């Protein structure tokens, strides 16, 4: 494992801000009836730990080795599941976005690549946006035509009793070189309409599960609401224009959000 360095990171106004630049890399490769991890390289705040495998699936846990992301940080994770491999990635704890020593935004970029007949389950703990933080997160995902993906994303806006920070997220998914999903969301102070009835209203947690697999080609599900209107929070299932389904949920807090996503995933869909 190599260590990250604090370096001058340019801000949008051209000034310099001290922040951490760090990249972690994971590569999973099929080896007979199992999956090996020829590349498992943590950096800076990313400590990567091998977990006990399950069947043919290799499992990795991302452990935070320092407070991150802070203002000015530039963080990146790259994960590749090569042909025929099965990879499961989780995290040891929630990721906490904090203000840091500079007003510059932090960036957290996740790049995932899944080859033919490979499977990737990306199931981290939630991201918590603390007061005063400013995070820009991107997900860039490239899938082969027969690849399978389960991606879970949970966002909690503010810790208990505090206002949220600013979070801008962009998710771009390509399958066979064609765009399957491209969406952007913006929450927190300065974002337009994020707490209006058309977006989150009084809710302060939002998340989604994206499931992609060739099995949906033959039997695509129908759009449906997954919660009772009398309950606090809402989850909906939306089929995409391709072999994929998106479950989206909003809730007053992180625990309720996780419950909604768990119920929607385990009772309605599997991969």
Record keyword descriptors for this entry:
UreD; 19 strands; chaperone; 2 helices; 271 residues; 7% helix; mainly beta; 11-stranded mixed sheet
Describe the fold and architecture:
The longest helix has 15 residues, at 254-268. The model is unreliable at 1-16 (pLDDT under 50). The protein is mostly beta strands and 271 residues long. The protein is built from 2 helices and 19 strands. The chain has a domain at 20-199. The strands form 2 sheets. Strands 4, 5, 7, 8, 10, 11, 13, 16, 17, 18 and 19 form an 11-stranded mixed beta sheet that branches. Strands 1, 2, 3, 6, 9, 12, 14 and 15 form an 8-stranded mixed beta sheet that branches. The chain is globular. Keywords: Chaperone, Cytoplasm, Nickel insertion. It comes from Streptomyces durocortorensis. UreD, UreF and UreG form a complex that acts as a GTP-hydrolysis-dependent molecular chaperone, activating the urease apoprotein by helping to assemble the nickel containing metallocenter of UreC. The UreE protein probably delivers the nickel. Its main location: cytoplasm.
């Amino acid at each position: 494992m190599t260590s990250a360095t604090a370096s001058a990171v340019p801000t949008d106004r051209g000034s310099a801000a001290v922040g951490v630049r760090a990249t972690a890399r994971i590569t999973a490769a099929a080896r007979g009836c199992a999956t090996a991890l020829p590349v498992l390289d943590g950096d800076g705040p990313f400590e990567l730990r091998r977990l006990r495998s399950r069947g043919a699936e290799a499992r990795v846990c991302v452990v935070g080795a320092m407070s991150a992301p802070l203002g000015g940080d530039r963080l990146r994770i790259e994960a590749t599941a090569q042909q025929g491999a099965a990879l499961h990635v989780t995290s040891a704890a929630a990721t906490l976005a904090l203000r840091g020593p500079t007003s510059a935004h932090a960036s957290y970029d996740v790049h995932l690549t899944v080859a033919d007949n490979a499977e990737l389950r990306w199931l981290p703990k939630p991201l918590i946006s603390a007061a005063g933080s400013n995070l820009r997160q991107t997900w860039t995902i490239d899938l082969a035509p027969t690849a399978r993906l389960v991606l879970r994303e949970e966002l909690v806006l503010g810790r208990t009793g505090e206002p949220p920070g600013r979070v801008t997220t962009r998710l771009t998914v390509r399958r066979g070189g064609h765009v399957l999903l491209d969406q952007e969301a913006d929450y927190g102070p300065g974002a337009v309409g994020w707490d209006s009835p058309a977006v989150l209203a009084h809710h302060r947690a939002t998340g989604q599960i994206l499931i992609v697999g060739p099995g949906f080609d033959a039997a695509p599900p129908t759009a449906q609401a997954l919660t009772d209107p009398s309950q606090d929070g809402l989850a909906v299932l939306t089929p995409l224009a391709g072999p994929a389904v998106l479950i989206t949920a909003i809730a007053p807090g992180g625990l309720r959000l996780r419950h909604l996503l768990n119920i929607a995933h385990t009772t309605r869909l599997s991969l």
